[in-house]
Write a structure and sequence with these properties.
This protein is an all-alpha fold. Helices cover 68% and strands 0% of the residues. The chain contains 12 helices and no strands.
């Protein structure tokens, strides 16, 4: 294949390959390969078959000529015939070995590359959002909220220190595997039960949904890492192209969610809860502890923080995978090295 110029991307090279039997690998710069592989691959080189046939014919001709040569003893003829038979078997064995190596080399193609790319595109937004949620569900964010200027004070008497203590209990409960008594047994300064049974039940539901979602996303992210490593080795540019599209999908999803939240926060909040919790199990009075610890402003700020962290992650991935000319040519160089290795394994 002709060497591309410095000002052309891999998919802009229009020169056909010099060798018709050469199979070009794709350079994956997106969801489509930049260099389309050949439709068919030749498992066996026809020239090798002709060479093997020619060697066999010449070997038979030489054997026949030697058998017609007069003056040979019977033992010598048998020895020469055995040597010639061994010589005839060696080229055939070598040809079969080379053909097997060629088939193995040509079969070294990525499995389901398009499906893996789609998987990476869809997993990236989930992973970034889950990372943002996990970062927000920490005492550090809680402290920043309670101490930031403008955060509404508790009209029923909780001080900032009390909010910090009791609010940390709530966050710890949804992130650990403690029983319901972890919250149900808490008491205020007057000795009264701090959380009602309905509040503890809702926090238990939040615990199950949150931890299950984080566990599923963690498994998907692990599979995504494995897929990235596999595609990086088998299809240069495929993983980075999928992550690049996934970062744009994350940005688009965040913009859509932000528009929906701005146009109607209460409807957005109610719709979100109705997807995961039973009706009536997540509504409380203004005097209940959950509302006093986590007012509406807390959830607005938490949503902004999650979206901001996910956006930063998407921008970082976008910058790291932007299909620059340098990255495209580097992927093309990796393809050439793989092709050269395949040709060596195939004995070409």
């Amino acid at each position: 294949m002709a060497t591309p110029s410095n000002d052309k991307a891999p998919w802009q090279q229009a020169e056909p390959p010099a060798d018709e039997d050469r199979r070009e690998e794709p350079v994956w710069t997106g969801l489509l390969p930049a260099v389309v592989p050949a439709d068919t691959a030749h498992d066996d080189d026809p020239s090798d078959e002709h060479d093997d046939a020619g060697r066999s014919e010449h070997g038979e001709g030489r054997g026949a000529g030697r058998r017609r040569t007069p003056g040979r003893t019977g033992g010598g003829s048998r020895a020469i015939g055995a040597a010639e038979a061994a010589g005839d078997d060696d080229p055939d064995e070598e040809a079969r070995r080379r053909a097997a190596l060629r088939r193995d080399a040509l079969a070294d193609e990525p499995r389901l590359p398009r499906l893996q790319q789609v998987f990476l595109v869809l997993v990236l937004p989930l992973a970034l959002l889950a990372a943002g949620v996990r970062a927000v569900a920490t005492p550090l964010f809680l402290w920043a909220e309670y101490h930031r200027p403008g955060f509404p004070a508790d009209s029923y008497g909780f001080s900032t220190e009390e909010r910090m203590v009791f609010g940390s209990y709530g966050l710890d409960y949804v992130m650990n595997w403690a029983p319901s008594g972890f919250l149900g047994g808490l008491q205020d300064t007057d000795g009264a039960q701090l959380f009602l049974g309905s509040e503890v039940a809702h926090m238990t539901d939040v615990k199950i949904v949150l931890q299950s979602a984080l566990a599923v996303v963690a498994v998907l992210a692990l599979l995504g890492i494995v897929s990235c490593l596999y595609l990086r080795a088998k299809a240069p540019g495929a993983a980075s192209g999928a992550l690049f599209f996934g970062s744009w999908l994350t940005v688009a999803l965040l913009v859509a969610l932000a528009v929906a939240a701005v146009l109607g926060w209460q409807q957005f909040f109610a719709l979100f809860h109705s997807l995961f919790f039973a009706d009536g199990s997540w509504t409380f009075r203004a005097s209940d502890t959950l509302i006093r610890l986590y007012p509406t402003q807390f959830w607005v700020d938490a949503a902004i923080a999650v979206a901001g962290l996910a956006l930063l992650g998407a921008l970082a991935v976008m910058i790291a995978t932007w299909p620059t000319a340098f990255r495209r040519h580097r992927a093309l160089d990796r393809v050439r090295r793989r092709q050269e290795l395949k040709r060596r394994l195939a004995g070409r």
